[in-house]
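Researcher: Final request for today, and then I'll write up notes for the group meeting. The sequence and the SMILES for copper (II) ion follow.
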Amino acid sequence: MQPKNINKDNIMTLKPLWQLGFSTAIMMAISACSQEPAPASVAIPPTPASIPHTNHTMASSPEAASTPTSHTSQNDCEIALNGTDAMQFSLKQIEIPAHCTQATIHLSHTGKLPKTAMGHNVVITSQAHLRGVLSDGLQAGKEHEFVKPNDERVLAHSKLLGGGESDSITFDTALLKTEPYVFVCSFPGHSGPMRGTIVIQ
Ligand SMILES: [Cu+2]
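Model: Predicted protein-copper (II) ion complex:
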């Protein structure tokens, strides 16, 4: 049959070509490796771990030296977070200074919609437990403000807020240093856009 022969021919001719291409690529890769010396000029940036966390004024640049040192160490452990009628948090990432043993999140609903339509909360949990916390929160329903009661996977959570309301939560930061943590709004349908990572730095 004609179609079969054509197929066979194609395979026969394609295979050597493919092998040639493959071996050429390998040879090129090998020669590229052996010819190029290691780029010695690449500067290794200092890792965050190498920066002494007790030293706030690393006066390595003029800007850093001229920065007012009026901030108190208590205030930088407090984070302001807004939720809007457009189903957004004001932050995609919460940064907590490494010296904070506790951190506080002040959540404000800056919109006007009621919490039945556009409720916002902030729930702190590990990345690994996020999915389970959200599905159990959904099951817990609105009478529990979409957080399973006494959920051990939840480090902290705020009340569910409507427009114009606010709430604050304070939590220990020790666990945040052991694995990736996230903040999320557990109101149905909000966890996609309304979530972010927590970074200790
Ligand atoms: Cu929300």
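Model: The pocket of copper (II) ion is lined by residues 83, 119-120, 185, 187, 190, 194 (CB under 6 Å). The mean pLDDT is 77.
Researcher: Thanks, that's everything.
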